[in-house]
Amino acid sequence: MPAMTNSGSGNQGIVATVPVTVAADYAGVDHERRVRALALSHAVALYAHAGLPVLSAFCAATTAAMGAAAGICLVLDGSYSAVERAVASMTGDVVGMVCDGAGCSCALKVSASANAAGRAALLSLAGRRVPGTNGLVHDDVDAAIRGIGRLGTEGMKQTDPEILSLMMAKQTV
Length: 173
Description:
Layout: H1 10-27, H2 31-49, H3 61-76, H4 80-90, H5 103-125, H6 141-155, H7 159-169
């Protein structure tokens, strides 16, 4: 089955698209609001992903889920503040998950990320968010996203070769 991609990944496209579509179906919104929410989801996901290197041990399903959380909030609330709260909360949830390039475990990471997007949207719709004083979260969402890029770029440098080493150690000749 064809899938919408995001940042060149079908799994990231699934995370950025399916939760927003489910929310739009649930809310019974019109076509224009659905399309706007999907566009916002992909734009936020691309923006969050832009700070990451081309190859990293950082699981980018989490950045796609930032977009999904934004899109869900646009569908259900429509306010900038709801979108901002949801994206801020996402920077404190599943961010930092490790990508090991495996198909089945990637599907689990897609599920965890989509679940986190829904959770962040529900918190946001209740007027809540993870405070900017917590962990990687920042009061300024752009600063939080830049921090995520730094984590994926600098913080995961040693993780990539270690994952490769662990995978190669399983190969018996």
